[in-house]
């Protein structure tokens, strides 16, 4: 009976260590890798709306929120 209790406790400790390792890895991500976590916001030149750079359309070093605004259509 004691053995089963020992295995259960060992399993719980093992799980806690796994969770702690994952938490520690999230807290201190490795410095390697160029992926940026922070999203860069850019402004649409036509309507002045702020959109994430990843979703913005770029043309001649200017950013636009949509294809319509990129093409210069106001309405
Ligand atoms: Zn726009």
Could you explain how this protein is built, in words?
The chain has 75 residues and is α+β, with helices and mostly antiparallel strands. It is built from two helices and four strands; from the N terminus they run αββββα. The protein has one domain. The chain has helices at residues 2-27, 67-70; strands at 41-43, 50-52, 57-59, 62-64. The strands form two sheets. Strands 1-2 form a two-stranded antiparallel ribbon. Strands 3-4 form a two-stranded antiparallel ribbon. A hairpin with a 2-residue loop joins β3 (57-59) and β4. The mean pLDDT is 88. It binds zinc ion. The site of zinc ion has 8 residues, from loops.
Concise structural overview:
With 75 residues, this protein is of the alpha+beta class. It contains 2 helices and 4 strands, in the order H-E-E-E-E-H.
How many domains would you count in the coordinates?
Answer: 1
Q: Give the integer mean of the pLDDT values.
A: 88
Termini Cα gap? 76 Å
Sheet with the most strands, sense and barrel status: 2 strands, antiparallel
Query: Please, how many helices?
Result: 2
Strand order of the largest sheet: 1-2
What class, by secondary structure content? alpha+beta
Q: Report the radius of gyration as a whole number of Å.
A: 25 Å
Point out poorly predicted stretches. none
Beta-strand content estimate? 15-25%
H and E order: HEEEEH
Number of strands: 4
Which geometry do the CA atoms define?
A: rod-shaped
Bound molecules: zinc ion
The helicity comes to: 40-55%
């Amino acid at each position: 009976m004691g053995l089963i209790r020992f295995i259960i406790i060992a399993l719980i400790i093992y799980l806690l260590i796994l969770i702690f390792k994952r938490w520690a890895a999230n807290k201190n991500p490795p410095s390697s890798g160029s992926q940026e976590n922070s999203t860069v916001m850019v402004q649409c030149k036509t309507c002045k709306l702020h959109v994430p750079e990843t979703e913005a359309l770029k043309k001649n070093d200017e950013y636009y929120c949509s294809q319509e605004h990129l093409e210069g259509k106001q309405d």
